[in-house]
Each structure stands twice: as C-alpha cells, then as structure tokens.
C-alpha cells in the first residue's frame, strides 16, 4: 500500500485542500503524514455524517475537500450524503475503506461490510473504483484524479 507521504503528494496533485478524515485500520497509517502536511489540512470529525457535512460546507465555501471514511461509516452517513450530494448537487470525492473485502472474497469472514457497500453505493448513485490491497500511489492518484476531474461525486474504495 502507498505510504502516507505518497498519499499527501497525490492529494496535493489533485488539488485537495482539506481531508475530512475518520481513519480505519488501513488509512490510519497515513494519519501522521496527513497531520503534518499543512496542505491538505486534516480535519477530524466525530461521525461520518458530520464528515460529509463539514466537507459540504467547505466545498460551498470554495475549498476542494475529500471525505475519507470506512464502509461502515458510509452506512451511518446516508442522510448527510443524500442532502449534500443529491439535494445540493455537490461533487464530493470520497475515499472509502472497504473493510474485510479480501477475506470476504476468499470466504474467510462473515463480516457483511463488503456485502453491502457496493449495493449501497449503487443505490446512492455514487460511481466508484475499487483498488486492491497493495495498491500504489500512482494507481491511487489515477483513481482519485478521475473522480476530482469528473466534476461529479465519486468514490475510491480501498480493499482491506
């Protein structure tokens, strides 16, 4: 997987000004690099719905935020997502940790997070790209740039 320093450089290259971040076991390793980066600025909300609301407010104010959460948080944040993405038509980019994805594919877990994430994204009409475990910074950059440059909402899913 890409390092925190590499991720910071990708985010800067995509013009991301703020990362509204609730870390998971995988993306949490990036926190030191994000915290010391300066730009993008790291914001730590308490809940995923709050993360979307903060990012929406930042976007309305002219910033280019990124929401970085785990799939379980996506489930919790549905109403905020509906409001900001569909009612206000904000093109928020998301990075979503897809917990237990590899173990699910191999039949080694009963965790339902990977079972429901894709159908939920489809129901909310969020286009997505899945990056397999061990992805590189260039692969992450390409996937995130595609979302940011589309001018539409979208997600990069990080298979855990």
Continuous helix count:
8
Tally of DSSP β-strands = 6
Structural class: alpha/beta
The CA-CA distance between the termini, in Å, is 10 Å
Helix content: 40-55%
CATH-defined fold name: Rossmann fold
The major beta sheet can be summarized as: 6 strands, parallel
Mean pLDDT, to the nearest integer, reads 95
Strand content: 15-25%
Q: What best-fitting shape do the alpha-carbon axes yield?
A: globular
What is the CATH class? Alpha Beta
Q: Please, what is the CATH homologous superfamily?
A: Thiamin diphosphate (ThDP)-binding fold, Pyr/PP domains
Output the radius of gyration. Answer: 14 Å
Note poorly predicted spans. none
* Number of separate domains: 1
- Please trace the helix and strand order, writing H or E for each element: HEHEHEHHEHHEHE
Strand order of the largest sheet: 2-1-3-4-6-5
Instruction: Quickly give the CATH architecture.
Output: 3-Layer(aba) Sandwich
In short:
The chain is an alpha/beta fold and 160 residues long.
């Amino acid at each position: 997987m890409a390092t925190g320093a590499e991720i910071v450089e990708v985010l800067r290259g995509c013009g991301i000004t703020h990362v509204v971040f609730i870390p998971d076991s995988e993306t949490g390793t990036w926190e030191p690099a994000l915290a010391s980066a300066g730009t993008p600025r790291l914001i730590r909300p308490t809940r995923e719905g709050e993360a979307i609301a903060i990012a929406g407010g930042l976007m309305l104010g002219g910033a280019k935020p990124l929401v970085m959460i785990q799939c379980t948080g996506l489930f919790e944040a549905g109403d905020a997502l509906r409001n900001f993405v569909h009612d206000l038509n904000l093109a928020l980019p998301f990075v979503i940790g897809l917990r237990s994805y590899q173990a699910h594919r191999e039949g080694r877990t009963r965790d339902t997070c990977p079972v429901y994430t894709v159908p939920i994204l489809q129901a909310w009409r969020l286009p997505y790209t899945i990056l397999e475990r061990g992805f590189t910074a260039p692969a992450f950059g390409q996937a995130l740039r595609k979302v940011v440059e589309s001018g539409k909402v979208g997600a990069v899913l990080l298979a855990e």
